Amino acid sequence: MAIKIAILDLYEGTANEGMRSIRTLIEELIVDFHRPLKYDVFETRLTGEVPDLTYDAFISSGGPGSPLDSAGSYWESKYFGLMDAIHAHNHANPDQKKHVLLICHSFQIYTRYYGYGLVSKRKSTSFGVMPMHKTFEGHHDPLLRSLGDPFWAVDSRDYQITKPNIEKIQASGGAVLCVEKYRPNVKLERAVMAVRFDEAFFGTQFHPEADAVGMHKYLLRDDKKALVIEKHGEKKYWEMLDHLNDPDKIMLTNRAVVPRFLMMALQHRLNSVSA
After folding, report:
1. Please, is 99 exposed, middle or buried when counting C-beta atoms within 10 Å of its C-beta (0-12, 13-18, 19+)?
2. Which of 23, 123, 162, 227 makes the best surface tag, with the fewest CB within 10 Å?
3. Over the stretch 49-101, which tens digit does the pLDDT of each residue have?
4. 242 assigned to some structural domain
5. Enclosing domain of residue 92
6. What is the CATH number of the domain that holds 178?
7. Is the Cβ–Cβ distance between 104 and 157 less than 8 Å?
8. Tens-digit pLDDT profile for residues 101-135
9. How many domains does the chain have?
């Protein structure tokens, strides 16, 4: 029987590089895994389509627009019905847990729905290759521990998560793992950039799937170029393009987080089968 991965597409039909990058990472794993492995894509935000619990790992994508305005929508009711079902399965089957990776928009709506922090609109868009600063727990988390401090990742958002509910996160065995860069001249709380909610649920505000090919396309777009130059200056824009060729920047993150998440989830599944 093949091990199955579900991709929940929250891009609502808009053009993006995120889905391409996620598919690429899974297809590379399929080549190296040497076991039957397949994946399916579900147009969750566009049609309300969700996978069932026969899947072993779930990757929920980023997406455009507000993570607040969709509260109570049809597709969210389907989405969180799935999340509730995975939680119930994991509670009832602690040795056969389903693993979930929540990226950007997915991370925001999950945090909002389950009350793990405050989701709000930023004063301005954050876009580019940015440093992520680890917490103590982030240094030891298996998905991040091979990365430096700070490590570099693609940040693309109009919204943010602040005021994390630490007690609730810790009660489920989780932790805040990294925060955005220190800004001494900005008197605002630093946003949360990654949380381990429990052993099986992991969320990132940044895009761990992003690769140099996709980010290069984005940075060459006139609107994205203008945005980066407006916020950070032209020198910083050209530095970001240079970062794309640096193996210690976003490509290191690309090769660490999603592949390791998948390997841990699939190994967990294999161990439960052989036990």
Report:
1. buried
2. 123
3. 999 999 999 999 999 999 999 999 999 999 999 999 999 999 999 999 999 99
4. no
5. 3-210+253-274
6. 3.40.50.880
7. yes
8. 999 999 999 999 999 999 999 988 888 888 999 99
9. 1
